[in-house]
Structures are given as structure tokens and as C-alpha cells.
TrEMBL record:
<feature type="region of interest" description="Disordered">
    <location>
        <begin position="233"/>
        <end position="256"/>
    </location>
</feature>
<dbReference type="InterPro" id="IPR017330">
    <property type="entry name" value="SPAG7"/>
</dbReference>
<feature type="compositionally biased region" description="Polar residues">
    <location>
        <begin position="151"/>
        <end position="164"/>
    </location>
</feature>
<feature type="domain" description="R3H">
    <location>
        <begin position="44"/>
        <end position="107"/>
    </location>
</feature>
<protein>
    <recommendedName>
        <fullName>R3H domain-containing protein</fullName>
    </recommendedName>
</protein>
<keyword id="KW-0175">Coiled coil</keyword>
<dbReference type="GO" id="GO:0003676">
    <property type="term" value="F:nucleic acid binding"/>
</dbReference>
<feature type="compositionally biased region" description="Polar residues">
    <location>
        <begin position="246"/>
        <end position="256"/>
    </location>
</feature>
<feature type="compositionally biased region" description="Low complexity">
    <location>
        <begin position="233"/>
        <end position="245"/>
    </location>
</feature>
<feature type="coiled-coil region">
    <location>
        <begin position="18"/>
        <end position="45"/>
    </location>
</feature>
<feature type="region of interest" description="Disordered">
    <location>
        <begin position="134"/>
        <end position="174"/>
    </location>
</feature>
<feature type="compositionally biased region" description="Basic and acidic residues">
    <location>
        <begin position="134"/>
        <end position="150"/>
    </location>
</feature>
<dbReference type="InterPro" id="IPR034068">
    <property type="entry name" value="R3H_sperm-antigen"/>
</dbReference>
<dbReference type="InterPro" id="IPR001374">
    <property type="entry name" value="R3H_dom"/>
</dbReference>
<dbReference type="InterPro" id="IPR036867">
    <property type="entry name" value="R3H_dom_sf"/>
</dbReference>
<feature type="region of interest" description="Disordered">
    <location>
        <begin position="196"/>
        <end position="215"/>
    </location>
</feature>
<dbReference type="Pfam" id="PF01424">
    <property type="entry name" value="R3H"/>
</dbReference>
Length: 256
């Protein structure tokens, strides 16, 4: 402890804050608290504004209402109040540019065309709705046409395949003779031997599944296992007796 006390006493004490630094730190803390309180008050006012606006929206015949572009915190307030009020809230646009929230009544939920248009930044009005409906009809017609074309092509391929497999159809003959092409490698006579038809060996690899099943009962299986154990034990005993017999003979021969 004496050595530790000596070291601690020899160390310099941390520099003390003067009155000016203390005052500066205090002002910064107070400024931070005022900013936080101001933000809380602003959020409370915004929450009250959104709540009142959605209350009016619930009573009129509008299908949706739009809010101005806002940051993520304010949009989260809109989504929270909309969810609590039984509405549908969605956000569209680019972050920090024009991202805004749109609140719908559940009985007037947005369709696919409206969601696509708002995500593309086109907004939504009767003219845009008509334009996107026309695009959707053209897209569906194109998809139907492509589907019919692929179906007809597949049926044509099936028809040609069945015609090729029909023995009554005309025989397709090759235009070249492979024997003449590879005669310099396999010769004229070897080609006929090499082209002989290969056949499966019927006596190899074809075992009926019923022959692979163990038809024994549980009792018979246990009895066979016990018999194998007894046979193994008897063989070990015989082997030990054969090893002990020469040792006994050598011992009796060595006695005076």
C-alpha cells in the first residue's frame, strides 16, 4: 500500500474546470434541453393537427387525403394515428425530396394502378387512372397473346414429335454415311462390329424387391442373433483350448 500511495500522490491531479468552462457547459446543456422541449411541443401540435384532420376526414365523403412532404418522424405520427383510427396509410416519393403520406379509408383502398402511379411519381386523378387502366389492358392482352403463342407452339412440337414416332410416316434417312467419315479411324470392317446393338445383361442387377425383404419374425431374428453369439463364443473357447494344450504338454515334459 505504501508504494501505491506513493505512486498516486506523485500523479498529477486532473485539470480543474474554471468558471468560464463551467458556464459554457451549462449553457450548452440548457440549449439542448430547450431544443428538445421545442421538438416535443412541435410534435404534440402536429399530432393534434393530424388527429383533427383525420376526424374531419372520417365524417366526409372523401376517399383519401394527402399530406405535404415530411420527414420520417412526422410520417410515423401520421401512420400511427391512421392505424388507430382504422385507416390505411401509405407513403410515396423519394426520401428527403418529396416523400409524403396518403391516408385512405378502408372501403376505398388503393388499387394496383393507383399504387403504381404514385410510386412512379405521376400522382392520381381521373385522367391518370384512365391512362393506367389502358396500359393494364394492353399488358394483359399482350400476356394473353404470348401465352396463346407459346401454347400453340408447344402443341405443334407435340404433333411433330408424334408424327416422327409414327411407323407409317415417311422414314428419315441421313444424308451422310458415318462409316465413310470415320473409316480412317475404325476401318471398313470394324465399323460393323462396333455398331452392334448392346443389350442389358438380364442376369445382373435385376433382383425382385420381395427377395430383399427380411421375412423373419422378431422372435426368429433374436434367436438367430443369439445363435450367432453362441457360435462365436464356442469358437473362441476352442481356440483358447488349442492354445493352452501345447503349453501344458511342454510343462509336463520339462518336469524331473
Amino acid at each position: 500500500m505504501d508504494l501505491l500511495d506513493t505512486i498516486l500522490n506523485a500523479m498529477d491531479a486532473p485539470p480543474a474546470n474554471n468558471e468560464q468552462q463551467k458556464t459554457l457547459i451549462k449553457k450548452q446543456r440548457e440549449l439542448m434541453e430547450r431544443m428538445q422541449n421545442k421538438q416535443k411541443e412541435e410534435l404534440l401540435r402536429f399530432r393534434k393537427y393530424v388527429d383533427e384532420r383525420m376526424g374531419r376526414f372520417a365524417k366526409d365523403d372523401r376517399q383519401y387525403i394527402e399530406f405535404q412532404p415530411l420527414d420520417k418522424v412526422h410520417r410515423s405520427v401520421i401512420h400511427e394515428i391512421a392505424e388507430n383510427g382504422g385507416f390505411i396509410a401509405m407513403s410515396f416519393g423519394r426520401e428527403d425530396v418529396d416523400r409524403h403520406s396518403v391516408v385512405y379509408k378502408k372501403e376505398h383502398a388503393p388499387g394496383e394502378d393507383e399504387v403504381t402511379a404514385r410510386r412512379n411519381g405521376d400522382g392520381w386523378n381521373p385522367e391518370i387512372a384512365k391512362e393506367y387502366a389502358e396500359r393494364r389492358r394492353e399488358r394483359l392482352a399482350q400476356e394473353q397473346s404470348d401465352k396463346e403463342a407459346s401454347t400453340s407452339e408447344a402443341s405443334a412440337n407435340c404433333t411433330s414429335s408424334s408424327t416422327a414416332g409414327d411407323p407409317d410416316s415417311s422414314e428419315v434417312k441421313p444424308t451422310t454415311n458415318y462409316k465413310a467419315k470415320y473409316a480412317h479411324l475404325i476401318g471398313e470392317s470394324a465399323a460393323l462390329q462396333a455398331a452392334r446393338k448392346t443389350e442389358t445383361n438380364q442376369s445382373y442387377g435385376f433382383v425382385p424387391s420381395k427377395n430383399k425383404k427380411d421375412m423373419r419374425s422378431i422372435e426368429q431374428t433374436l434367436a438367430d442373433i443369439q445363435a450367432k453369439k453362441r457360435l462365436r463364443l464356442a469358437q473362441q473357447q476352442e481356440l483358447e483350448q488349442e492354445q493352452q494344450a501345447p503349453e501344458a504338454t511342454s510343462t509336463s515334459t520339462g518336469d524331473p
